[in-house]
Amino acid sequence: MVPGDWVPPGESAPHRPVGPDALPAGALGRLRGGSRRAGGLRRPAVAVAVPVPGPEPSARPSPVPRDGSGGPAHPDLVLVESRPGKVAAQLLLAPPVLLFLGLVAVSAATNASRLGIHLAGGGLLPAQGLGATWSNYLASWHSVAGGTAAPAPATLAVLGVLGAVLFPVGGPPAALAVLLLGDAPLAAVLAYAATRGLPVRRWVRALAAAGYALLPPATAAVAQGRLDVVVVHLLLPPVLVGIVTVLNPSSRGGPVTSWLSAAAGAALGLAVIGAFAPLVHALVVVFALVGFVVVPGGHGDGRRRVAALFAIVLLPLALLVPWPAVVLAHPSVLLSGVAGGLPANPPDTTHLAMLDPGGPGSGLVGLVVLLAVATGIVVRPNRAVLPGLAVAVLGAVAVGVIAPQRYWTGAPMVVVGCGLLWALLGACRTDRRTRTSVVRVFAALGAVGVLALAVGDIAVGRSGPLRDNGSPTLAPALTAELADTGRAVLVLAAEGQPDRMAGGRLPAFGDDDIAPVPGATQRLANWHRALTSGDPATTKTAIATAATAGVLFVVLPDRAAGTRFTQAAGDLASGVTPTSDGRPVERLQPAGGAATLISPAMARQAVTGGSPPTTLGAEGISPVDAAPPDVAVRASEGALGRLLVLAAEDEDAWQATIDGQPAPIVRAWGHLVAVSVPTTAADVRVYVPSAVRDVLLLVQAAVLLFAALTAIPGRR
Question: Whole-model pTM?
Answer without folding.
Answer: 0.84
